[in-house]
Amino acid sequence: METSTSAAQKMTELSPLHSESTFCESELSRRSSDERLSESVTQPFSCKPLIPSRSWEQYECEKLLGTGSYGEVHVAREGFSGRKVALKQINFMGSAHRVDIEREISAMKELDHPNICKIFGTIQTERSTTLIMELCEGEDVFERIRKHGPFNERVAADVAYQAASALHYAHRCGIVHRDIKPENVVFVSFASTRIKVIDWGLCCPMSRTRAIAGSLSYAAPELILAKVTGEKDCWQPAVCDTWSLGVVIVVMLSGKLPFHGTPQQQLKKMKSWDQGISRDRLWLAMSPEVRNLITGVLKISPTERPAVGSILKHPWFQSKAPPVMSKKTADQVLANMHEFSRLGHFYAVCLTAAARLLDCRQEDILHLFRSLDKHGNGRLTLQEFTSGFAKACNADRAELEDLFHDLDKDGSGTLHFTEFFAAGMGSALLEDKALRVVFEALEPKDGTISAQEVRRLLKTCDIKKRWSESALIDFSEEVFSRLDLDDKGAIAAEEFSCGIRTHLQTVARAPRRGSRRGSKSSVQLVGCWPFWSCLPFWRRA
Question: Where are the residues of the annotated region Disordered (predicted)?
């Protein structure tokens, strides 16, 4: 192995050239390493398409969580990372069922929200597809109510807001859940009130549909009516999610299903709901705000029912908003973001992949993201980002604008949670487990990767198709040569991790650039964890 000094020199990696079109290979080849290091990462990428294929040999099943007509769900231990995951095995039941499975996988790839369960990969066999998913170790809402009784308004508002934010994000992505119920809202741990919306197997596009799906006890009146009459007029599925969420709120506060029985009985109860809530002693003891919210979302007519996004500003939620994050945490995250913004393209892809393929359990960064997300839609606008950090850190707005554009890796004009998480987490993404997850996402052969695996990763994440094939080859070989610290022509997991960390150390030592607008930084980097702070002390010298 080379010395850390020579390794750091070798890791001085090029960044993509600033161009709106495909790279000019001749210009790429004549740039020196020093020039490449100083360039900004300007080419868009996204790690959403990164859903690696795994094998059963990499997992050890520990516990059966549940069974259904489709298959089984297990808690399993991932061999290469040691973390626990959920394995949802779905047995094929015909060609149409395969299409449904692919739709669920495609939807989960797109959904990048802190309250939506992540997919980490798949295991494909001739008879089944197994989804490797984030494990929520707590019980679902139904089970918590069964054990402990109805929620108080503060907890119910917190859970409902998170679920509404997740649904609003999904709807903006053009995806409707169609099976919102307490069993599909799961707590991340037994002690937490943070939730994940799970089971997107019945999801559909936002367009109007005639299909009836979901659990009838939580289904909207138009679906129940179609069940009774057999007439399947087109309806808008998004407001069906609104209704189902309203029923979940009622169940959380009362512990009872408001609309049960036969479809005809359900319709009768739905029509008299407004009168019932105004006379029932249980609801009269609740706040006027929650009664107003429930009567608003449980409108019989779908045209009068609000979209999920519009209820996030309801006074019931606003009165129970999360506390503002501390200046210390905001300073730490902002410092890490400045470090991240200076990474070369490949290393930014790797750390974003780590954030994409890991579950985030850091409550401080989750609360910070939520406090910045004023619209509750699961993504940060330029205004939300700059206003929030300027207020929390007394930071320069011009520099914050530059930083925002640096972190907007997919060029969408907003920051998705993974982009925020990757840039803000700092040294946590350099732990052995995190980097091993990225290494395994490259799908190594015989425990090592080649330039071909590097090229495949870059091509998968090149969502705008800015790279020509020849530029991809040149760039991948350049990156590979800098990671291949022992010049053996293959990179093992430990060497990969060492190479990533060494590059981060080089970037951390380099002087930070000022604002593109020419202003000096006014950000006070207080109590930060630098990206390279987890390096062994002999590598920091």
Answer: 1-37
44 in any annotated domain = no
* pLDDT for residue 21: 36
Phi first, then psi: give them for residue 121, nearest 5 degrees.
170, -175
Question: Of the candidates 133, 149, 182, which is a domain's last residue?
Answer: 133
**Other C-beta atoms within 10 Å of 307: how many?**
15
327 φ, ψ to 5°? Answer: -60, -35
The total number of structural domains that make up the chain: 3
Q: pTM to 2 decimals?
A: 0.85
Q: Which residues contact 432 (CB under 8 A, 6 or more apart)?
A: 497
Q: Is 433 annotated as a binding residue?
A: no
Does 145 share its domain with 264?
A: yes
Co-location of 401 and 446 in the same domain: yes
Distance CA 393, CA 336 (A): 13
Average pLDDT of span 43-62: 92
CATH of residue 88 = 3.30.200.20
pLDDT for position 327? 87
User: What six digits make up the tokens of 12?
Assistant: 């001085």
pLDDT tens across 493-531, in order? Answer: 999 999 898 888 777 776 665 544 443 333 333 333 344
pLDDT digits 0-9 by tens, 14-26: 333 333 333 333 3
Containing domain of residue 94, as a range?
Answer: 56-133
Does 520 reside within a domain?
Answer: yes
Residue 7 phi, psi dihedral angles, 5° rounding: -65, -40
DSSP string, 261-323: SSHHHHHHHHHTHHHHHHH-HHHHTS-HHHHHHHHHH--SSTTTSPPHHHHTTSHHHHTTPPP
Q: Mark whether 422 and 438 lie in a shared domain.
A: yes
> Residues 195, 186: contact at Cβ < 8 Å?
yes
User: How many angstroms from the chain centroid is the CA of residue 25?
Assistant: 35
Pair (410, 299) in one structural domain: no
Give CA–CA dist 512/520, Å, rounded. Answer: 10
CATH number at residue 227: 1.10.510.10
d(Cα 452, Cα 450) in Å, to the nearest integer? 5
DSSP for 109-145 reads: HH---TTB--EEEEEE-SSEEEEEE----S-BHHHHH
Residue 196, in any domain of the structure:
yes
| Distances in whole angstroms, Cα of residue 510 to Cα of each of 8, 34, 79, 482 | 12, 12, 37, 18
Instruction: Report the number of secondary-structure helices (H) and strands (E) in the chain.
Output: 25, 13
Residue ending a domain, among 270, 297, 318, is: 318
pLDDT tens digit sequence for 145-168: 999 999 999 999 999 999 999 999
pLDDT band at 321 (very low <50, low <70, confident <90, very high): low
Residue 322 to residue 371: CA distance in whole angstroms: 7
Rounded CA Rg of the chain: 25
